Amino acid sequence: MIRNFFQSKSRNPIAERCDKDNFTKLRQKYDLYYRIAESQSGTRITIDGKELVMLASNEYLGLSQHPKVVEAGKKALEKWGSGTMGARSANGGRGFHRELEEELAEFLGKEACHVFAAGYLACMASITGFAQRGDIVLADKNLHSSLWDGIRLSMASVERFSHNKPAHLASVLEQLEAETPKLISVEGIYSMEGHIGALPEICELAERYNCFVSLDDAHGLGVLGNQGRGTANHFGLTDKIDIIAGSLSKSLASTGGFVAGSKACIEYMRTHCKQSIFSAAISPSQAACARAALKVMQEEPEWNQKLWENTRRYKALLDELGLDTWESETPAIPIVLGTREKAYYFWKHLWEKGVFSIISTAPGVPPGKDLVRTAISARHTEEDFQIIEAAIRYASSKR
Ligand code: PMP
What we know:
The chain is an alpha/beta fold. The chain folds into two domains: 24-54 and 301-397, Alpha-Beta Complex (Aspartate Aminotransferase, domain 1), CATH 3.90.1150.10; 67-299, Aspartate Aminotransferase, domain 2 (3-Layer(aba) Sandwich), CATH 3.40.640.10. It is 44% helix and 16% strand. The chain has 16 helices and 14 strands. The strands form three sheets. The chain has a seven-stranded mixed sheet with strand order 4-10-9-8-7-5-6, with helices on both faces. The chain has a four-stranded mixed sheet with strand order 1-2-3-12. The chain has a three-stranded antiparallel sheet with strand order 11-14-13. The longest helix has 19 residues, at 302-320. It is globular, with a radius of gyration of 22 Å. The N and C termini lie far apart (57 Å). The structure holds 4'-deoxy-4'-aminopyridoxal-5'-phosphate. 4'-deoxy-4'-aminopyridoxal-5'-phosphate binds next to α6. Pfam families: Aminotran_1_2. One of its GO terms (molecular function) is transaminase activity.
């Protein structure tokens, strides 16, 4: 009887799909993703007893182990407890949420800001909070998954334009009805490619065609602009961009996300976006760590300087070896190998020589762009660099 019960369970088509999925089997066989580090110290992590230099973290400024950031997290935990146990719209709002939002808004040069428990939620909300059925979202083809999910959920229709090609966006805009409300969705730094978004041209088009501009600057914050104020600030375009969304999980050394804009826009979004209305607010320690990191960013500019110094040094090495970095201009640097197999071996050779990277293959990247994603941190030391350089030279020689 009991046996029959379990047998009939495993025959349901969805459970069966889980048992048989080839892609999952492939992932498990090659053991590339979901790796667990047993310990971490600085830029070093240990996996299966092997110490590796982390060369794939989004922790651009290297602040997650900064004493001020760690201390702020501990204090918040002691003062407020572990969680918020509810949505901001209901019981979850606390004073530190308001403080973090005010500090972020001021830093970004916007009137108001709203913080979410994940960058993914914030970026979704940067679309669903504004676009609706009947509107058109103009989307760069290489947008992050969170933005695509936001676009789908918004029920607006979508027009894609070639990655970072404002000329193509212009030709798409030309064909649309002038009265239809339009939102342009772009990124400040594209995370996989390391490209800086062509914001000057995008803003010009937005003005000409009367479009709302929503910018995901998850990777630009802390990296570009005055004291790391991001890509809009870097181009002096903060006032031309309606919404700046981002993550707290990269330069701000925490987890969570935000959307900043005018008071009216942020209040409108608070009323309409499900990602905040129905999801618990960011926890006290997460918020406190982000606030502390934001302060460190402003008080200790040496982290940003070191980040760019390390980036230039690393990029020079890749250029010397003739590696294809997809014209990355930032600390997020892909090494394009072109096929899944070549990317796998490059990744494996780095691993053998003590360097942790991430492999990304089609359909995650366009066909022929299979790559190993690497990212530089301000925290990489001279000793790290020696290991990185030896590993990259080795992997490159085996191509
Ligand atoms: N936007 C972009 C461009 C990202 O790269 C990411 C995460 N990698 C997110 C949004 C989501 O941020 P989080 O990981 O903080 O949820």
